[in-house]
Amino acid sequence: MPSPVSQTLAATPLMHRRAMQSLVMLSAIIMLWTGFRPAFEPANREVPSVSPLPAEEWKTRRYAIASGDSLSRIFSSQGFSQKQMQQIMAADQSLLALDILRPGHILTFELDDNQQLLAMELHIHAGNRILYQRDDNGEFSYQELLNPGEWHSSTLVGTISGSFYQSAKSAGLNDTEIATVQQLFGDRLDFSRDVQAGAHFQVVRSDNYVVTGTSKEATGLSRIEGVRFFNRRQQFTAFLHDNGQYYAANGDSLERAFMRVPLAHRFRISDDFNPRRLHPVTGMVRPHNGTDFAVPTGSAVLAAAEGRVIRVEQHPFAGRYVEIQHHGQYKTRYLHLSKALVHPGQQVTRGQRIALSGATGRVTGAHLHYELHINNRPVDPMRASIPLATAVPADSRDAFIQRITIISKQMEQQALLARQQSDKAEALVN
Q1: Is residue 27 a part of any domain in this protein?
Q2: I need a labelling partner for 319 at 20 to 30 A (CA). Which of 265, 370, 389, 414 fits?
Q3: Which of 200, 169, 250, 251 is nearest to 414 (CA)?
Q4: Which of 159, 162, 237, 180 is nearest to 408 (CA)?
Q5: For the chain, how many structural domains are there in total?
Q6: What is the pLDDT of residues 76-129, one digit of tens each?
Q7: Which of 301, 276, 298 shows the shortest CA–CA distance to 289?
Q8: DSSP letters along 108-152, please?
């Protein structure tokens, strides 16, 4: 038998029934949209609220660099044109920061109202960010956002068991720091033949941190402050001075002198170091972080000092280039090469042929662009103070000796603690 409700609905005109059905459906939609909670729902249940995204959120994108990523692939995945990528790379020519994208780096893109690229930030670490911004003329320029942070030292000690490399790794040194120690003592100690089992070393290392509020974030930067190496009744020492050079405990220099000009013959300087130079092709203000020499294609390019090759790359604007890490805080770059004669990881000596000059990249003619960096900042290679293999300057000798005394005391304390821990462990075994 039909229910009273069914009889009532049957007696209702068709037009009214359709209106009632529409009203019920509309009420259901409103209930779902507003997060309506029926009376029987538990009062303490959390109901998600629905709110539109802020306008800023769809204008900003964040991308974490993964292994194997390239700038071209990233721009394509984000829907940006190759033209925009070329504009960014043109702005980056003075830094070449985008040539070494690594896992852990972060790219943040800012879009305008038309979803076009307005700015891009490269987050290298907490103390180093680079902002690329679109100018009024549609081109891009860059700004480095640097935070020097704070340096905190620690002491690492180790005993040779097997190779120096493995022993140093076990003590906590990374590959770059191990290479630094080997370079400092390389002309006095053959690490593959002369080092005996039982030889020991002490290293004071400083690590860089950026402090924001109550948090402290490591930047990944480190430097060797001092090294003492004991082998066959001999002691080898190296201590970093405030001028960025390493000296033995007696004040003698451990640096190898730099060449002011990395060429076998003298050539005319066609363009000086100039942070505010007008680019000869675009006419825009672009930093010129090095010195240009008017050399014909195929001229020999020499390593300015002893060091290790860390980059051999091809760039659309810088062309083929080589970068070398030298002792201490020194790096050199050689741009627009026709041919590289070295490979990454290779050790080179002062005056060694490393490349042939050329006209690769965006240039108006064949030349060598040469850069010198101290503490990761470009300086004028023709005027900068560079290592000349001289002793500690007389006016800072007393301060240097005081510094050595403090660092040596740190080393001795850590070595004593390590021996005590080793003795305890041996006693437990026995």
Answers
A1: no
A2: 265
A3: 200
A4: 237
A5: 3
A6: 999 999 999 999 999 999 899 999 899 999 999 999 988 889 999 999 998 999
A7: 276
A8: EEEE-TTS-EEEEEEEEETTEEEEEEE-TTS-EEEEEEE---EEE
Q: What is the dihedral of CA 313, 317, 323, 329, to 10 degrees?
A: -140
E strand or H helix at 368: strand 368-374
Asked whether residue 227 falls in the same domain as residue 158, the answer is yes
Same domain, 212 and 164: yes
What are the structure tokens assigned to 423, written together? 């003795």
Q: How far apart are the first and last CA of the chain?
A: 95
Share of the chain above pLDDT 70, in %: 84
Give the structural domain span for 71.
Answer: 58-146
pTM of the model: 0.70
In this predicted structure, what is the pLDDT of residue 166?
95
Name 217's bridge partners: 210
Does a structural domain hold residue 42? no
Give residues with Cβ within 8 angstroms of 172, minimum separation 6: 156
In angstroms, the Cα distances linking 344 to 142, 164, 325, 327 are 27, 22, 11, 16
- CA-to-CA dists, residue 236 to 156, 177, 247, 249, 351, angstroms: 16, 16, 11, 9, 26
Backbone angles phi, psi at 113, to 5 degrees: -65, -20
Q: Give the CATH number of the domain where residue 114 resides.
A: 3.10.450.350
Residues composing the chain = 430
- Could you read off the pLDDT of 301-328 as tens digits, one per residue? 999 998 999 999 999 999 999 999 998 7
C-beta atoms surrounding 310 within 10 Å: 15
